Amino acid sequence: MKNTVKIHVPPSQQVMRNRTYNRQMRNLYYERSNYQFRKIKKTVNSEATSDGHNLLPELYEFEKLLNVCLYYARSAVASNKKEKIEPYSQDHRWGILQEEVVLVYFLEEQISSVKYIISHIETNRRIQTFANESKSDVIVHHLLSNIDELNQDTEADLCYFYDNIEKRYGIGNNLFGILQELQNFQ
Fold it and tell me: pTM for this structure?
């Protein structure tokens, strides 16, 4: 019969090891999401009047990457809920950086913007499908003309959201640079 030896690792070391892993994964998915957004932005800038249907798979991938990044960012902050982790200002060895908490909020805001863009494009697709199915209906024709007017204004809104996400990434990249510097000193 085999005897197994159980190695006792103090909870603080387990938490730190998990936080380190979550930080590394957060960093990886942040870079991937940033790259994915740059790819989307390049496509948006190159197409003058795009209805966005061809961007949906790219946007879904972008949302997925942001969600995974958010998961790891939250895990790095929450770590092990059984232990209360102090802020870095109080505990320089195991504490949580305030920038890590801000990054969680940043990612949540990015996800909400992406969800709005996806929702708008999907709604337009459904309306167009509905309109194509019932072209002869007078009421549908009247509604479509009103929706087309609204979509002209909404195109500017979508450009605003893309630009806003891009500006947020500029801020996020600065925040992320600070995080990486501070984490290297820990």
Answer: 0.77
